Amino acid sequence: MSIEADLRLSFPEPGGGRLDFHFNLALPGRGITAVTGPSGAGKTTFLRCLAGLERPRGRLTVNGRPWQDGKFFLPTHKRPLAYVFQEASLFPHLTVRRNLDYGARRRCRRGGQSQLDLDRFIAILGIGHLMDRKPETLSGGERQRTALARALAAGPEVLLLDEPLAALDRDRKEEIMPYLESLRELTLPIVYVSHAQDEIERLADTLMRLTRPGLPAVVEAGRQRFSK
Question: Strand 218-221 vs strand 206-209: parallel, antiparallel, or unpaired?
Fold first, then answer.
């Protein structure tokens, strides 16, 4: 298992009381883990804990390296991860190529960037013909594919995807789904939050189900489950 977590945190609720979360689980070191559950169950909260954007109590280990343990807490900017949100959040004044170069520079600061890797991500995501265009000229699906390539160019050990298709219409979702499926070629864990059952059934190698705050997550082999 590549991601092992035993994390607790709580938030005050309007009108009094506390909203408590407890994530105690282990996830595999490659493939796509889909995180699903009703609104408020803690899906995005779990991603934010992995990213270090929340500071829960407990322990988090990734690829055998502690990211959090007792008083030790690895800050977000030192965690080798990439986080893609619903909106692509590309730099509007930069071309696709220069947006990808920005991601690659993050990897350089951590110890080297392989152009071969970047070329591979461009090929996997089918954006080679977009290199000289700016984000305003791209479709929603093209922007998200560019955002994914920029995230991968940074050389993450973990890729976090928070409902990356939620802002797209049906046609744009169908455009990008094959590219998301192709991410299984990569040897890193991908944690994918979604409400959409059709996305989960197509993408999930592993399924992490949250029911409500305070109850443990259920982790199961997704593709075995969906093949029945």
Answer: antiparallel
Does residue 38 sit in helix, strand or coil? coil
Q: pLDDT tier at 1 (50, 70, 90 boundaries)?
A: low
- Residue from 167, 155, 164 nearest 191 by CA: 164
With a threshold of 0.70, does the pTM exceed it? yes
* SS3 label, residue 67: strand
Is residue 62 within 8 Å of residue 156, measured between CB atoms? no
Q: Which CATH number fits domain 1-80+159-228: 3.40.50.80, 3.40.50.970, 3.40.50.300, 3.30.930.10?
A: 3.40.50.300
Domain boundaries along the sequence of the chain: 1-80+159-228, 90-156
216 φ, ψ to 5°? -70, 150
